[in-house]
Structures are given as structure tokens and as C-alpha cells.
Fold Putative peptidase inhibitor domain-containing protein.
Amino acid sequence: MYLSHAVRTIRDDPMAEESVDLVVTLEADTELSETFDDEVTAIGGEVVADLQFSAVHVRLPETAVADLCALDGIDRIETAETLRLVGDEATEPASDTERPATDERETDTTRPTDRNREQ
């Protein structure tokens, strides 16, 4: 199972009063089911939304991340903030005229080949 660096950090050193939004991608042969929802609920979390590609948006206390990592059928876990895949919480990318010149990496949605041609 792949865990992003941020997820590994949270798993190993959770903050007791904080919660986290994660994107959990299930293994190819695992179906999204009520069983997974029940398992997440049992560890103190909730499945917020079904996403594309066998993924779900999960919100849970940081102290439950290790328990989530121990569940069967998970292919990868990443933070939802990093992936910007979460419905209303995701923001639309800024247009070129709105993008601040000092922080292009955060909002740049061009492919690397397009960006190289512009330079």
C-alpha cells in the first residue's frame, strides 16, 4: 500500500484534537461497499464522498489514521488537500491572469510539455 509522506507523518505522530481529510483508493478487486463505510465508521471516521477510480474521500481523527492504514483492500492513501479532489473543498484553478507569479506550482494546471514551450 502506498502512503503519501504526509499520511505517514500523521500516522506516526498524530495530533489528538485534529482531524484529516484523506483520499483512499481501494485495490482493483475491492468494490466500494457499505462494509468499507462501516469499517471507517468503526474507527471514528466517515466516508464523505465516493470519487472516481475506486477512491473515496474520508474524514477522520488523526489518531485513527493508523487504524485506517491497517484495513484490508486499500491500495493508496493520500491527503485530500494535496490532491484537490474533494468536491466543494476543491478550488478551481486560477487563470493565467489571476495566478500570482510567486506561487505558480500551487495553481499551475498546464502539462510539463506545455510549460516548457512557454519558457
About this structure: Residues 108 and 114 are 11 Å apart (CA to CA). The chain has a mean pLDDT of 75.
